Amino acid sequence: MTVEPIKDKKKIGDFLTYLKGKNQRDYILAKFQLNTGLRVSDVVPIKVSDIFTEKGNFKNYFVLSEKKTGKEKKIKLNDELKKSLKEYVEDKGLNYNDYLFESRKKTERIYIGTTQAYRVLKKAAIAVGIEDFGTHSLRKTWGYWTYKASRYNIGLIMDTFNHSSQSITLKYIGITQEEKDELYSLVQF
Questions:
Q1: Mind listing the pLDDT tens digit for each residue in 95-138?
Q2: Which residues of 14-37 are buried (b: 16+ CB within 10 A; e: fewer)?
Q3: Which residues are designated catalytic?
C-alpha cells in the first residue's frame, strides 16, 4: 500500500471532527501532526513543559530532537494549534511535567505508544473514507498543503523534512504529474 497525503480539505475536516467526537487526546494528536508535519514518534512523547512555560504561557518555540535523525528542530506553533492546545491542557487539568498524550493505562503515567496512536488514527481515517492512510499520512498532508500554500517552495519543505533532494520531497508529499501539469497553466502569455 502506498501511503498518501490527504488532498481533500473536507476529508481532513471530517477526520478531525470524528476524532474530536471520540477522544480529545486523539484529536489533539492528529491536529498537532497536521500543523507541524512531525512524525508520530516525535509527537507522542511531548510534555506540557515542552510547549508551555511554568507560568502557563507558550514558549516562543517548540524545540525537539528528532528521534529518527537526531537533528534539532525548532517550530513556531501556529495560532490555531495554540488555541487547541491551551483548551486541551486546561480541560484535562494537565500539569507542567505531564505528557500531552498520556496512555490510558494508568498503571504507569506514560505517553501513548506509536502503534496505538496509529491504530486510533487509522480507524478514524477508515470511518471517514480516507484511503491509503498510513503512519506518515498526516506528515505528508502537512507537506502537501504547505507546498501549495507556500506557492510551491519545495526547497523550504525539503529542508523541514531533512530530505536530500527535491525529487524525494515531491514524491513523498504525493505531487503527481497532474499537479505538475497545473503549474504550466499558472502563467500564460
A1: 999 999 998 876 666 899 999 999 999 999 999 999 999 989 99
A2: bbbebbbeeeebbbbbbbbbbbbb
A3: 39, 68, 136, 139, 163, 172
DSSP state string for 135-181: TTHHHHHHHHHHHHHTTS-HHHHHHHHT-S-HHHHHHHTT--HHHHH
Element (DSSP H or E) covering residue 64: strand 62-65
Q: Which residue type occupies 165? A: S
Residue 44 CB-half CA count within 13 A: 20
DSSP class of 112: P
Q: Which residues of 157-171 are buried (b: 16+ CB within 10 A; e: fewer)?
A: bbebbebeeeeebbe
What CATH architecture does domain 9-133 belong to?
Orthogonal Bundle (1.10)
143-179 pLDDT per residue, tens: 999 999 988 899 999 989 988 899 899 899 988 777 7
Task: Give this prediction's pTM.
Answer: 0.89
Domain ranges of the chain: 9-133, 138-183
CA trace torsion 77, 164, 69, 2 (10° rounding): 80
181 φ/ψ angles, rounded to the nearest 5 degrees: -60, -35
Residue 119 to residue 127: CA distance in whole angstroms: 12
What was the pLDDT predicted at 43? 96
Q: Which three cell numbers stand for residue 102?
A: 498520556
